[in-house]
Amino acid sequence: MVSTTSPRERWWDAATLRSWAVDANDGIIATAGILEGFAGAGASDNVLVVAAAAATVAGALSLGGTTWAEASAEREAQLIIAAEESAALAAHPDDEIAELTAYYERKGLDAALARQVAEQLSERDALRAQLESEYGIDDVMSIGETVGAGVGAGVAFLVGAIIPLLITIFVPGALETWAILIVVALSLGLIAVIAARTGRVSLTRTLVRSLSVGVGTMIVSWLVGALVF
Fold this sequence. Notes:
elongated; mainly alpha
């Protein structure tokens, strides 16, 4: 079954904001983890800047491209289903009405009312009624939505990754490791608040999960760098 919406949902709804918050988190954690690993290995400031810049650019392009490809595949699947349903409506319209009637009967309507609803929806937009009832597809995604999903994911990652990158550029080397840890923890906390508020989930649990993963990643990365070199 094809999902109701694209992998990154529609623009500007709560699901999209949560998705962007996750992508920004990925940008912060991935870039900070790389920096802490290099710092643990005793890398110079120049090496750290190059590593952070490379991680920022590569991560944003990779996530944006992957998300676009994912959304495009979803759109193609929706188009195939829409074409199949359109052909079925043209060949057997009565059977499709019967399927739609059965769907609303399962929803709790009596047979007569379910038939009436099915007929009225089919008169308005038969294909959309079938797609929504059988596959949960409200609207087939547009090309613009697939591109927007990729761009949104890439930009969100970039925004998150820039935070540790800026610290690497502007904070003195002696304070860099601790500055990254503290600022990244604060940034993750802020994004966790946004994600919790838009998703109406527990703020405490969201904060704990986000900070545990972020701080844990940085500590383990630093230890790996220190132990390997």
